[in-house]
Amino acid sequence: MQSFCDYYGIDPDAFEASGALDPVFGVDTRLFIDPCLLKHTDTEELANSYDRVSQHFADVLKVVSNIGVEGDVFWRTADQRLTFPEVHGLCIGYATNGKTGSGMGPGLRKPLLQTVKKIIDAGVKDPALFELVGAFEDNIGPDRISDMVARIILEDLVKFTQRVCSDFGIPMEPLVVSKGLPKEDMPLNPVTGNAVILVPRDILRDLPIAETYGDISRIAYENKLLRDELNAIIGDSWRKATLSDQKEVLRNSFIKHPDILLDVLSAYHKAGRSLYDFKDDPAGETRWYRASKEFSAAYPLELTLEAPADTERVFAVVKKICQHFRELIEDNQLCKLLYNKGGTRKHESAAQLIFFGIASAYCRANGLELSPESDGGRGPVDFKLSSGFDGRVLVEVKLSSNSQLFHGFEKQLPIYQKAERATKGVYLVIDNGGASEDRMAAFRNLVLSAGKDAPEVIIVDGIPRPSASKADK
Fold first, then answer.
1. Cross-strand bridge partners of residue 188
2. Cα(43)–Cα(58) distance, rounded to whole angstroms?
């Protein structure tokens, strides 16, 4: 596991000045291209990108407005213009193999076209509504919007990548960036063999502005007529309604009351520039890699795996990594990465990425054939050898604030172990203060009463403490 900078021998601080995100090969960063941020980007190659996106969707609206019946020539043309071949090499979003993103298949395009046709017939013809579809259309989230926009502005992203690589002397070769397009001179992703498409950091967010349902629902809810309808449908429990229910209510209201959608669009157009805070990294998506390298270098751990490697010996190494990870969290301030600057807890995936990074760094530093693998660095970490031993040891990281704390120990990790043929498992619980003392006591009792085949449990105190130097003052 290496970042783009490390693989190509680039100083990360110098690379940061280029404005590009430094991707980690094999671990997609769950940030997304926000079309709203394209309006404000300082990246020269993307100066006209927002106009390109708006024009594309304006053209689609013109075609949709002429649809007579579903399946006619205008329908087919609009459907074709909403068909976006997947982009290879973005290294962002939810793809776990770094190869492709989230495409817009026919099962998504049909209901989207049906909704857009109804909205146009109701009198709304603002192309920006396509940037908002994630708020009211099922199965369309920030990853699909991001990939859709990436395909439209692909030419600009390619030029940006080529300029950055030229500036740093990074080698490029002819590679495919999207199906049906000629190859471009691009840097190589050594994990996938595909191109790497660099993305400017100033167009990325963890959740695009148009995906903040609270704002959209608040604007819509200010309309009394709609408010009465919403209360009749879902009572006073808008926040408790499922995401699908919320989207259905908004979708129907925008068709029935186009003035509400116009209000939402007006507010969206006025939205300011709200950039992702890469320094604080509230989503826990970017700081973990560098922190893992820094902590593993500052607090080295000697690991040996004696031959012949068997399950017990691998298990012993994995436990040593977990116990050292606990020391880093409890005694060496690594726990700071689990919280935002205001003290709020980060998502569990932040803890999973940190552990994955730490484990990878120590295995690499000791030259072990043992390599931790995971689904994009999240979820259970699967420790396995590159050769000579097909056994596995799984580590599942859970925060005490997770409502599935008990279920994960009793059911989830054993299921993972069975699926991965792992005879040994470690349930690594990080107490971030999200569970009461009674709940933690009940969990400890559950562990004590578990059978001998239950996963090994290691509990980590992840609540921030003053450093030793501060405590002495």
1. 195
2. 24
Cβ atoms within 10 Å of 358's Cβ, excluding its own: 26
Bridge partners of 393, per DSSP, are 383, 424
Q: Is the pLDDT of residue 225 over 80?
A: no
Domain ranges, ordered by start, for the chain: 4-207, 287-471
Q: Which amino acid is at 331?
A: D
Alpha-carbon gap, residue 266 to 206, rounded angstroms: 23
* 221 neighbors 237 (Cβ within 8 angstroms): no
Nearest to 423 by CA among 377, 390, 447: 390
Instruction: Supply 224's token pair.
Output: 């009394």
Phi, psi angles (nearest 5°) of residue 329 = -70, -45
- Is residue 272 scored above 80 in pLDDT? no
| pLDDT tens profile 317-349 | 999 999 999 999 999 999 999 999 888 999 999
The secondary structure element, H or E, covering residue 425 is strand 422-431
What is the reported pLDDT for 244?
A: 79
The average confidence (pLDDT) of the chain is 86
The H or E element spanning position 439 is helix 437-449
SS (H, E, C) 106-134: HHHHHHHHHHHHHHHHCCCCCHHHHHCHH
For residue 244, what are the CA distances in angstroms to 136, 213, 222?
8, 12, 21
The SS3 call for residue 431 is strand
Q: 429 is written with which tokens?
A: 């619980």
